[in-house]
């Protein structure tokens, strides 16, 4: 079936999800929007995040969408209902796939969730995990400096390790065996987070699980493309072109060139 | 003369300027706008910062303005011309007062300027300093983690000191005797910055100098209020109410209560 997989995020982090989608669904057209003019979302109020998210959805709706992927934990945590009220297109969020993956992983029944302030205060992961298994103990910790550290490319710096120790220390004696990286930026800090926890701890990155959820949804809708194509469309939009997006995207996706176009989504 | 002093900033930082203005001009009406929904500005492109700034100016123009104070170094560095093209109200920026204050302070003729990426790349401080004295050597350093550290209230934490050392180390052997805090957030990091530099180094915070510039401009326009009033108006608007703005503002201004109102400025 023709149509796009629409993906949006507050910035560059959602590319972790796009990369997985392109990998398992290589023939599908994808349109991505990163709201880089207003990043970060994780420090803003749910009301403002919802308002921005609706503008993202409205922009993506210029394309014929088969499914919308909310590749941002903050939006998934705070604004899913309002998004669903404003479109008939099925919406895939990143919380449920991450939560179910964590529940499958844990043996001790103790899971930690780390994310932005907005994601943590929303309790969305706690609810999603308890919906699957109410007996699991969930520890949460907001790590607000992680996003700017990644944005500054300091993820392998000593600073990242010191900040990670500060945030995560209190989780170390809790018998946790599974840590949900509840923000699309955090997979880039895996090295550092791994240094803080013991080696047995499983780090859950919802990007892959989310791409599986997209594939399942399209399959269920009989909306998968059934012909291979040489050149599926992969469109990338941002609301601001900061120096780095194109470089980060090109490196991250491992392509020769990523064409990124700037749009205004707040003045329509 | 009736009318307001309009002040805007990307967020809470501009309150350092408001505080000084209220102190030296206690009878004047002030209207403040913090664009907290889209903070930070310092990591965004000049084009986007200009677009946001014009929306801030447009909002403030709902009030009869005597003068507009751009209490944000990033906006002052990137968007002053476009703002001046769009209003007849005199505009005071924070760069020129900071620069002239630094030139007055230096004995060695070596000044360091620290600020956001956007402020540093604009070279605005270098130009402003060289406009006054071309023989001065100016060293610059962008400190992008300083804003999120202050926003997270970590300014007295060990993390702040480690980050400050990392950023400022290369300035230590340059015979610098004056450091311009080229971002309204940075005065809150004075303690930490002071620990990195020797005690003889002068830290220049443009808030006070800017308030003097406002007073001089109003005087020159014969627009100062010449009667004392019991209750001048001090109005505070933000584009998002994050948990903290009201608390930070109340503490910072030392008032019993600061009434803050949320407005949308991008959909008019």
Q: How would you describe what is shown here?
A:
- The structure is a homodimer of 268-residue chains.
- With 268 residues, chain A is an alpha/beta fold.
- Chain A has 2 domains: 146 residues, Rossmann fold (3-Layer(aba) Sandwich), CATH 3.40.50; 112 residues, Rossmann fold.
- Chain A has a 6-stranded parallel sheet, sandwiched between helices.
- In chain A, strand 9, helix 12 and strand 10 form a beta-alpha-beta unit.
- In chain A, helix 9 crosses helix 10.
- Chain A is globular and about 50 Å long.
- Chain A starts with a strand and ends in a 6-residue tail after the last strand.
- The relative contact order of chain A is 0.20.
- Chains A and B meet through helix 2, helix 8 and helix 9 of A and helix 2, helix 8 and helix 9 of B.
Helix content of chain A: 40-55%
Beta strands of chain A, count? 10
Query: Could you state the order of secondary-structure elements of chain A as H and E?
Result: EHEHEHHEHEHHEHHEHEHEHE
Which structural category do the helix and sheet elements of chain A fall into? alpha/beta
Head-to-tail CA distance between termini of chain A: 29 Å
Number of helices of chain A: 12
- Under CATH at level 1, the class of the largest domain in chain A stands as Alpha Beta
Please outline the major beta sheet of chain A.
6 strands, parallel
The residue-averaged pLDDT of chain A reads: 93
Radius of gyration of chain A: 18 Å
**Beta content of chain A:** 15-25%
In one word, what is the shape of chain A? globular
In which order are the strands of the major sheet of chain A placed?
Answer: 4-3-1-2-9-10
CATH architecture of the largest domain in chain A: 3-Layer(aba) Sandwich
Q: Biggest interface in this structure?
A: A-B, 32 and 32 residues
Question: Looking at the chains present, what oligomeric state does this protein adopt?
Answer: homodimer
CATH level 3 topology of the largest domain in chain A: Rossmann fold
